[in-house]
Amino acid sequence: MSLCSEHETDLLIIHHSALTQDFFHLKTRVAGNMIQKLLNYGIRTAIIIPEEIIGKGRFKEMTIETNNGQHFRIYDNKKEAENWLQNI
Questions:
Q1: Are the beta carbons of 70 and 10 closer than 8 angstroms?
Q2: Separation between Cα atoms, residue 6 and residue 39, nearest integer Å
Q3: pLDDT tens-digit profile of 47-88?
Q4: Exposed/middle/buried for 63, CB within 10 Å: 0-12, 13-18, 19+?
């Protein structure tokens, strides 16, 4: 978030390899806390996560829910993530 501020942007793409495994285990609340913090700071974020991870259990439910919003979305490829951020 501080890098977004330093570079005067409110758009962010995160690759799944930059996330800890706790992010993908929703019981830890890491994903929810991170999403809330990004929303609080007004940073529109796209996370790129492979389809095999997106499609699993509760994480799939969270992806469907977050992808209905305008501030945080999960994609399985960089091109779609960039398109969404550029068309806001």
A1: no
A2: 18
A3: 999 998 888 888 899 999 999 999 999 999 999 999 999 986
A4: buried
Would you call 26 exposed, middle or buried from its count of C-beta atoms within 10 A (0-12, 13-18, 19+)? middle
Return the residue matching tokens 């951020």.
Answer: 85
How far is 9 from 17, CA to CA, in rounded Å? 22
One-letter amino acid for residue 22 of the chain: D
Using a cut of 0.85, tell me whether the model's pTM lies above it. yes
Residue length of the chain:
88
Residue 11, judged by CB atoms within 10 A of its CB (0-12, 13-18, 19+), counts as middle
